[in-house]
Amino acid sequence: MKIFIFLFGFMLLSLSFADQYTDRYDDFDIKELTSNRRLLSSYLKCVLDQGRCTPEGKELKLHIKDAMQTGCEKCTATQKTKARIVVAHIREHENTFWEELKKKYDPDHKYKEIYEGFLNSDV
């Protein structure tokens, strides 16, 4: 869920260098994202293969599955914080999208414990 942002906080996600995602998008404005339903919806549609992608959306789409499966272990501290914020927003205000994300990236609920643990932690 919050993974999604990771998901979005991960708009922030970019190419993987060593054992961390790039910090190229760490300054991505998640306040604008979470306060603009149309903007958020376009990013969500991108990662769900339902719409066009911006460069940030493409990076997110490349790493979202890995981030969910590993509890965002390659994320920077900023990405982890932003991912939790964005996913919390998605769960609360765009739950249908959250369900679609889980269905697409974890259809068998194999990684639920991992990403839920990440999303519910502070570290």
From TrEMBL:
The record's listing under InterPro entries reads: A10/PebIII (IPR005055), OS_D_A10/PebIII_sf (IPR036682)
Give any Pfam family that matches: OS-D
List the Gene3D superfamilies hit by this protein, alphabetically.
Insect odorant-binding protein A10/Ejaculatory bulb-specific protein 3
UniProt keyword Signal present: yes
Keyword tags = Signal
Q: Which residues form the signal peptide?
A: 1-18
Could you identify this protein by its name? Allergen Tha p 1-like
- State the organism of origin: Vanessa tameamea (Kamehameha butterfly)
Q: What are the top taxonomic ranks of the organism?
A: Eukaryota, Metazoa, Ecdysozoa, Arthropoda, Hexapoda
Gene behind the chain: LOC113399738
